[in-house]
Amino acid sequence: MTLVGYLSIQAHANRLANLRLHEAMKVLDRSAFHAPRVGFFPSLAATLNHLLAVDLYYLGALHGEPEGAAVFHRFVPADTVAELQQRQAASDARLVAFCDRLDEAGCDAEVVMDRGDRVQRDRTGHVLAHLFMHQTHHRGQAHAMLSGTAVAPPQLDEFLLPSEAHLRVPEMRAMGWREEAVYAPAPWAGSSPKHAP
Question: pLDDT (tens digit, 9 = 90+) per residue, 147-167?
Fold first, then answer.
C-alpha cells in the first residue's frame, strides 16, 4: 500500500463515518442537539461544529488559501443536525477530492498554517494524519454523547478494512462509491464486489 492510497482510504472512511453518524442523529431535534452533555465540548452541537470548523481551517491551509486563522475565528456554527450534515458533507467531499488528487511528492509538500500568533509549517502527509486523528477523536466523543439520547450510537469503525465491505454497503451505495475504486483489493482477495450502479 502506498501513502497516497492510504490517505485516500482515510478520507473516504472519514466521509462514511460522518455520514453514518449524521444519519443516525437525524431524529434529534434542535434541543437534543444543543442539550448539555458530558464531553470536552459539552454538547453534540458544540463537539460536531468544532470538528467542522477545524476541518475548514485545515482544508484552507492544504489548498494554500490566504484566509488562515480567520476561517476558524469567523466560523458560524450549524444550528441543527440537518444543517451540520449538509455542511460537513461538503467539507468531507472536498477532503476526499484533495486526497484523491494527491501524489507522493504532494505528501511531502509544505503546508503553511497561520495560527494567528505564529505561522506553523508541516508536510501535507503529517497535516492529513493529524486531521484524520482529530476527526476520530472528537467523533468518538459525540458517539459517547449519543448514549444519553434516544439514538443508539452507530458503529463507526467499519470503513478501513477491505475485507469488511459487507458492513458498509448502505453507506457506499449512498455515496455512489465502488469498493474496488476506494479500496485496492489485496492480491489474495480476488475481485471486490461492486455495490454502486
Answer: 989 999 999 999 999 999 999
